[in-house]
Amino acid sequence: MTHNSWYVNKKIMFTFRVNVVFFRLSWRMGLLSTLKSLFICHLIIGYVFLVSGLLINLLQVCTLPVGLVSKQLARRINIRLGYCIASQVVAVLEWWSGTECTLYTDPKSYPLYGKENAIVLLNHNFEIDFLCGWTFCERFGVLGSSKVLAKQELAYVPVIGWMWYFLEIVFCKRKWEEDRRLVAQSLQNLRDYPENYWFLLFCEGTRFTPEKHQASMQVAESKGLPKLKYHLLPRTKGFWMTVQNLRGTVSAVYDSTLNFRDNETPTMLGVLNGKKYHADLYVRRIPLELIPEEEKECAAWLHKLYQEKDELQGAYEKTGLFPGPKTSPPRQLRTLMNWLFWSCVVLYPLGLMLTHVISSGSALTIIAAVVVSSAASVAVRWMIGQTEIGKGSKYGNREVPPNTNGSS
């Protein structure tokens, strides 16, 4: 055999082996992708979340006597318990879906993230924007203590709502006269909170839809405000109240704008199916002392901020990039470990029960298992449905009467 023939044969063999390895890898990835899209996997994820969440809610109830002895100790315990619930959802996004998040921010601000209390202003355009907000919190160690301004009805929802109650989340009824006192009191309670927290705030009040945008721009026109293309008109009263009650406790506002590459439209169902998204998050740190204290001036400042956010969003639409340096904070192994731990805790007894059901052969037992499984299936579908933009709040669909002071 000539040297050239030997070389050609070696090259063919090498190419063949590479193709075999690539085929095996593609086959495995395709199999994994298929498994992730199966509803049984979604059912298991939902079961783990619901059952472990209820167990953790029960543990949170047990902290009530602790609070009578030491309020701060009870708060610290609830931060850890709350993390056990919230990080499961983050783990689904980061480890199951594999979604990546790129952060655009000033390198001088980066070291402060997670080291100070802050108000985080998020745009509300996507079904999973709240989840990306939680991921942002997790990457900087404040997920368990993160806060949000949520509608009162959510306080009665098992798992998330009950967790929020023990984490002293601020609830509102969206009725200004009632919220003025209740929200202010809840915010004042956070002034002596024992650990750093981020207060996530969706100033638009509801998710962006074409119908809500049209109604919102009618309000903007009636008030003589510049129209926005990518945002709803911000609700300034809630922002002003939050800033005023947290002055001296919160150091800065993080102006945050979230987008997804390649015009992706992420959904919670897509995440459960294992679809990988690429999120870009722009964060600008604004010291709280730069925000006016008077309500009218604060409202004007917020409207100007949203005009800037709208321009930023428009630039991203054209270029697919945010301005400034970018980084990718690493995902944390602790979210995966927490998820696996609670999966073992609740799936082991489930496995024992299913084994008993199958071995018993009792028709009544099998029917009961089917009923429980069906109920769990309905619960999982309901949870997924609540994240859909089409199923969102009707808040913002109606026109708001003109307000002479420029707030809403």
UniProtKB/TrEMBL annotation:
This protein's UniProt keywords: Acyltransferase, Endoplasmic reticulum, Lipid biosynthesis, Lipid metabolism, Membrane, Phospholipid biosynthesis, Phospholipid metabolism, Transferase, Transmembrane, Transmembrane helix
EC id: 2.3.1.51
Listed CDD domains: LPLAT_LCLAT1-like
Membrane-topology descriptor: Multi-pass membrane protein
Pfam families: Acyltransf_C, Acyltransferase
Family: Belongs to the 1-acyl-sn-glycerol-3-phosphate acyltransferase family.
Name of the featured protein: 1-acyl-sn-glycerol-3-phosphate acyltransferase delta
Organism (species): Oryzias latipes
Species lineage: Eukaryota, Metazoa, Chordata, Craniata, Vertebrata
